[in-house]
TrEMBL record:
Transmembrane regions listed in the UniProt entry: 81-106
Key words, A-Z: Membrane, Transmembrane, Transmembrane helix
InterPro entries, per the entry: YdbS-like_PH
The YdbS-like PH domain, residue ranges: 106-176
Pfam family, one: bPH_2
Name assigned to this protein: YdbS-like PH domain-containing protein
Upper classification of the organism: Eukaryota, Viridiplantae, Streptophyta, Embryophyta, Tracheophyta
Organism expressing this protein natively: Deinandra increscens subsp. villosa
Leader peptide range in chain numbering: none
Length: 197
């Protein structure tokens, strides 16, 4: 008790930054031991990474990709939205109209020379990117007398990515399949070509 009384009666002095941080650390360590029991304090596990390559060898770096150029950046075709709004007056077509409105306002497609990007969601938080190297097949399904259409991209792992109401869907499908064939040609050249019997 006497130490608490003397601590409150001593005059305050201006402290230098080094003594302030030392005092702050001391107080923090004192109060943290009172607020949290030691059994609840997290323990950090440390692991060491053992590298098998020699230290004197220079690391192998992948070649830098070229500048990313955009081939197409846009949303769903406006004709899909208009057609579904006109048909939305019927009660049967109402769910399809709601889906078309959501596609029209919250879905963006971007095709570049390096990847395909699909951005969706209210704030654009849902984003899917995949490279042309993983594309196995590209198919198209025309809608409304060929004004817009769906592009169905099959990936090498069997996943099907369905891009609905894409404007200029035929050009985009040709671009995707040509970029995918170029990417597979590069993979074959890097691996030393096709190996047979």
């Amino acid at each position: 008790m006497s130490t608490a009384a003397t601590a409150t009666t001593t005059p305050t002095r201006l402290l230098s930054p080094t003594t302030t941080t030392t005092t702050t650390r001391l107080l923090h360590s004192t109060f943290s031991s009172f607020t949290k029991p030691t059994s609840l304090q997290p323990t950090r596990l440390s692991t060491k990474l053992h590298v098998s390559s020699p230290a004197n060898k220079t690391p192998i770096t992948a070649p830098k990709p070229s500048q990313e150029t955009i081939f197409f950046d846009g949303g769903a075709h406006y004709g899909d939205l208009v057609a579904n709004l006109l048909l939305g007056f019927t009660l049967v077509w109402l769910p399809l109209t709601l889906a078309a409105v959501l596609r029209g306002f919250f879905l963006r497609y971007r095709f570049t020379n390096l990847r395909v990007t699909v951005v969706s969601g209210l704030t654009g938080q849902d984003r899917s990117d995949f490279s042309y190297k993983v594309i196995k097949d590209v198919q198209v399904v025309p809608r409304f007398i060929g004004e817009w259409g769906d592009v169905i991209i099959t990936l090498r792992d069997g996943t099907k990515v369905d891009l609905r109401s894409v404007p200029k869907f035929r050009e985009i499908a040709k671009y995707c399949s040509s970029m995918a064939s170029d990417a597979t040609d590069e993979l074959l050249e890097d691996s030393g070509g096709a190996k047979g019997f």
